[in-house]
Amino acid sequence: MRVIFAGTPEFAATALQAIHAAGFEVPLVLTQPDRPAGRGMQLHASAVKQFALQHGIPVAQPQSLRLDGKYPDIAKEAHDLLHSTPHDVMVVAAYGLILPLSVLSIPRLGCLNIHGSLLPRWRGAAPIHRAIEAGDTETGITIMQMEEGLDTGPMLLKQSVNIMNSDTTGSLHDKLATLGGEMIVATLQQLSNASLSATVQPEAGVNYASKISKDEAALDFNLPAEVLERKIRAFNPFPGTHAQYAETTIKIWGAKLLETTGNHKPGQILSANLEQGVIVACGRGSLSLTELQKPGGKRLQVADFLQGFALQEGHFFS
């Protein structure tokens, strides 16, 4: 079976690697254009492009696939390329571009999506982040047949994964990426044998996992400690949560839940020493901050952080 692959970040590259290792022919890869990154803002190829080039797979990087969009000539060139590239199916994973019906209808066996959620729980751009932030106890991978709606297509395979209390988006991402690679290979193998059946998604239980915004990263200590602890894990490694201490923005990468007794105002620093660490009162309960970062500095465990940055008990995070 010949598989055109469309994807961009590491999550997608893991799936492409699994497809390639399983022996499927990949005649073409679609990925996002190179983006500036790092302090020098030099152009960097996506993880998917890097893998494709290392294995001699042709790569296309159209800015758009919409014939009625901003770049119709580029989209037309991409359509022509897809039509002229012999293939049976397209696999899509975190591509980042909308696939219009004119593209979805090109592959003989349609387009399959590797989605990082147990659909229909989280549709949209950030299902891993939102599952942790919401306090879900499980998530998973859904392989679905794509249609024009946003993650609305019929489901082909689903498999769940427990969300541990220690999971960050980074750790959960890696588990789901590996599982997604295994599941798409199984799906393609079953598709080759015409042994797959599709299940229409239920209408109940749909949530939209909106794209993560840096504006969401500020911690509001008026909220309960358990809400903030989940947010800290959900926003690790991107974009990272933060709080203001006097005139300094401190990034907070890790925290543990604590019970608090006494009348403390939200955001008040209850301790800031090497013995007890940094404990901050919340709207309900408190947080023991375990990993912090000052501007221009490295992520540090709390004991190391306190040796280079003085926090005062009784003062406030805001």
Q: Can you describe what's shown?
A:
By secondary structure, the chain is an alpha/beta fold. Helix content is 27%, strand content 28%. The chain has 8 helices and 17 strands. The strands form 4 sheets. Strands 5-2-1-6-7-9-10 form a 7-stranded mixed beta sheet. Strands 12, 13, 14, 15, 16 and 17 form a 6-stranded antiparallel beta sheet that branches. A hairpin with a 6-residue loop joins β16 and β17. The chain is elongated and about 70 Å long. Residues 211-309 form the Formyl transferase C-terminal domain. Belongs to the Fmt family. This is Methionyl-tRNA formyltransferase. It comes from Undibacterium pigrum.
Key traits:
protein biosynthesis, alpha/beta, 8 helices, Fmt, transferase, six-stranded antiparallel beta sheet, Formyl_transferase-like_C_sf, seven-stranded mixed beta sheet, elongated, 318 residues, 2 domains
In short:
With 318 residues, this protein is an alpha/beta fold.
**Contiguous helical run count:** 8
Which stretches of 5+ consecutive residues score pLDDT under 50?
A: none
Question: Helicity range of the residues?
Answer: 25-40%
Structural class: alpha/beta
**CATH architecture designation of the largest domain:** 3-Layer(aba) Sandwich
Compressed to H and E, one letter per element, the order equals EHEEEHEHEHEEHEEHEHEEEEEEH
Beta percentage is: 25-35%
Determine the CATH topology of the largest domain: Rossmann fold
- Average of the residue pLDDT scores: 96
Shape: elongated
Q: Which CATH top level class of the largest domain fits?
A: Alpha Beta
Give the strand tally.
Answer: 17
Instruction: Determine the CATH superfamily of the largest domain.
Output: Formyl transferase, N-terminal domain
CA-atom Rg in angstroms: 23 Å
Major sheet characteristics: 7 strands, mixed
Question: Roughly how many Å apart are the termini?
Answer: 56 Å
**Domains (count):** 2
User: Biggest sheet: strands side by side, in what order?
Assistant: 5-2-1-6-7-9-10
Catalytic activity: L-methionyl-tRNA(fMet) + (6R)-10-formyltetrahydrofolate = N-formyl-L-methionyl-tRNA(fMet) + (6S)-5,6,7,8-tetrahydrofolate + H(+)
GO cellular component, one term: cytosol
GO molecular function: methionyl-tRNA formyltransferase activity
InterPro entries: Fmt, Formyl_trans_C, Formyl_transf_N, Formyl_transf_N_sf, Formyl_transferase-like_C_sf, GART_AS, Met-tRNA-FMT_C, Met-tRNA-FMT_N
